Amino acid sequence: MARNVSFDLNNPLLEAGLESPADEEGVHDSFNQLIAEQSQNGELPEALELQQLQREFDEEARDNVPYLPSPGHEHGGLRQRQGEMESEENRQTDPLVCEVWSSATLKILSSMPSRTIGRSRGAIISQYYNRTMELRRRRQSRPSIRDFSPSARPSIRGYGMDADATDAEGSGVSKRERLVNNLQNLSVSDRVRMLQGMPLSVAEKRELRRLALQKEKHTLSGSQIPCCSQLKYYLIIALRQSWYSWLSFLHSLQLWQVLLKRASGRFGSGVLSYFLFLKTLLFFNIFLFLVTGSFLVLPQAVHPPVLPAERPSFTGLELLSGAGYFSDTVMYYGYYSNHTLRRSCRDDPGSQNPSVSNSTSTDCVSKHLSYNMPLAYFFTIGAAFFITCIILVYSMSKSFGQSFRIDKSHSILAMKAFCSWDFKVIKKSSVKLMSENICTQLKELLAEVNQKHVKNTVCQTLWGLTVHGLAWTICIASTTSCVVGIYFFSEYMQQNLKETVRSPTHNPLLKEASLLALPVLVSLINLLLPGLFNLAAWMEDYDSPSVRTYVSICRNLMLKVSVLGVLCYHWLDRVADNPNTIGVTCWESFVGQELYRFLLMDFIFTLLDTLFGEFLWRLFSEKVLKRRRKPVFDIARNVLDLIYGQTLAWLGVLFTPILPGVQILKLLLLFYIKMGSVMMNCQAPRKPYRVSQMTTIFITLLCFPSFIGASVCVTYTMWSMKPSSSCGPFRGLKTMMQAGKLWVQELEKDNPRLSLLARAHAYLVENPFFLFVGAGVFLIIIYFHSQVVDGQRKIISLLQEQIENEGEDKKFLITRLQSIHERKRTPARRLTSQDSAC
């Protein structure tokens, strides 16, 4: 796995200064003080040390670049001979700045830490021997650099010279042994950081670490360690290995980890975001299913009510319609009791068992364990929605913080190129998978870096606006016509149900089959209309694939919201107001059956889209058109289908407590079907693009309008609509929320000390103002979090700008040194030419 790069300025290990032989913070401060002192004292000699170095170079006749004094003296003689053959006028050119530098300036530049790569192995060992010695001294005593006088502060002359002196003292073996000894005397963290900073091969680093550990083991074996210390040492090692094994086991339990990596490597971050979003929805539904199953389904299944004598038999059509045999099960609202379930009533032969009775009378007066089903139903649904809202808000805020940060493509490109590979991966398939993933990410970043913004002329802009306007007109008109068609068709189906009920000889199977007409029509519209949206997007010809995806998301969202709005009006206004006219005694169970049918039809039509839109199209393209071109996975349509199905599940949890379980089964099957279809039938986008904020947009759309709309409908049903009088846990009540009010009144009657609880319930639950306050608090939290993220983005942008300015400052200082050296050197050349002329 690739490691994340973090910058912690407060980390004490950074004080080791492994990238510089001196304390960088102190050196930088001392340089700032020196600059300030020079500015106060007037114009002093600006290049005193540089002149000293130049005199030394002129005496030694080493004015060429190849013989710059550096830790690599093994090849110094050859470099000197090559340098003497070249003339002094033929100077080296820096590839980054494209300037011609003198030999003195290049000598200073060669001593910089960034120029040490490429030196010989012995020189590197010598240099890091000096660094380990300095680190050990600083660990023992590290006085502040501000305590020194200006003359004793770090000088540019001494930088990088100790390595040369040490290199000339002895052979490579002695230097290697001294380095191993110093590494052995360092702490474990400092030793690891020192080895990581060495520009050596992995094999040589491993050898140095082995020698240091081997000497340390000999030292430990030579000294007598107490038995308790050995026991403590082995116990710590065992606990650490157990902890790492446990973490590795938990990491292996992550759902679909290998499949997600494979999809990301072949198709990029866009397709990966779809499957990650599907995984998020799966966890939401697992939570809902556990809550409703534990507090509603399981207690009622343990204490089932008395079922009617004329119960319909199972025919198989119930799997599609959800009616018939399933109507009198824990699947629907009408099955649940409206009284307190008591555990010991079955053991009392002289009393009526209320747990198997749907009547409102309760003759069992046992004081043993009891379960108030109406109260549990009300608070379970309310608590499930409240916790889901908190999780959604937290996920959305966290996603905002992760995706809307400053992530310039150039910096991420460098990070991906140099810091993404995990060297612990040794399995061949894992190596191939990781290489594909990194390759795809690099393609996306390069496409974003190379993206050019072309300025259009006035005529081109007007033509583009005209095309966009025409495309949006087509999409809005088609969506409006489909929504109007659904509205009138639902009204027609309701009239048809009324006529079927009035008919003396109606077939129940035909009635159940006719109930599938509206879900089939809506699912067919959701399948075909996105194709028209894609045709409009092709007509618009967007330059950026990400913009095209976002526009497609907006159009599909407009369609889904409109359809769900019409359906909610149909269920909560037409069906709930006059259920008897269509032959329904429990309108809550009928709405639950409708939601089950819509959810099932949506899954079936998704499979048909996968079969005809991806598999058969690939076969047609390969066999008939003789082209190897495959369809591209439509992220916008598939994601909006997921949000549409999840909205149906949230709407139906009140009327069908077991509906989240159906949604879980649907998502599991959908994941494997879509993953197999994507791998076999689809191809990666022709224009790679990075979608850094797409996951945040998906979570935002899931929160609003999906969850907020479902919560409004469920809250309106529980607060305002009258429940059915012949079924369900709230029969005989004006509203569902009255169950909580009656319970609080009973508590207050039994114990007057709980009057405060009654007032709290009246102000917090019965008053809708609390809901608005809670919603306002969540919105304020999201707003403040977005402002914090925006402030962090501004700070990061300022820091990046400061880093760029630091680079420009370095270039300026190097150019200044070069100009000073040229001014000092020109008179000397003139005198030399005059002497030669004489």
Unreliable stretches, pLDDT < 50, 5 or more residues?
A: 1-54, 56-98, 142-170, 344-367
Q: What can be said about the biggest beta sheet?
A: 2 strands, antiparallel
N/C terminus separation: 72 Å
Task: Report strand order across the widest sheet.
Answer: 1-2
> What is the H/E order?
HHHHHHHHHHHHHEEHHHHHHHHHHHHHH
> What is the typical, i.e. mean, pLDDT?
74
Q: Rg, please? A: 38 Å
Q: What class do helices, strands and sheet pairing give?
A: mainly alpha
Helix content: 55-70%
Number of helices: 27
The portion of residues forming beta strands comes to under 5%
Number of strands: 2
The coarse overall form would be globular
What would your notes on this structure say?
The chain has helices at residues 24-41, 48-60, 76-85, 103-110, 121-140, 161-167, 172-185, 188-197, 202-222, 227-252, 257-267, 269-302, 318-321, 373-403, 409-419, 428-449, 458-502, 508-514, 517-540, 545-577, 587-623, 635-652, 659-681, 694-720, 738-750, 755-766, 769-837; strands at 340-342, 370-372. The chain has a two-stranded antiparallel sheet with strand order 1-2. It contains 27 helices and 2 strands. Helix 12 packs antiparallel against helix 14 and helix 12 (269-302) packs antiparallel against helix 23. It is mostly helical and 838 residues long. The protein is globular, with a radius of gyration of 38 Å. The protein has a domain at 264-341 and 369-734. The model is unreliable at 1-54, 56-98, 142-170 and 344-367 (pLDDT under 50).
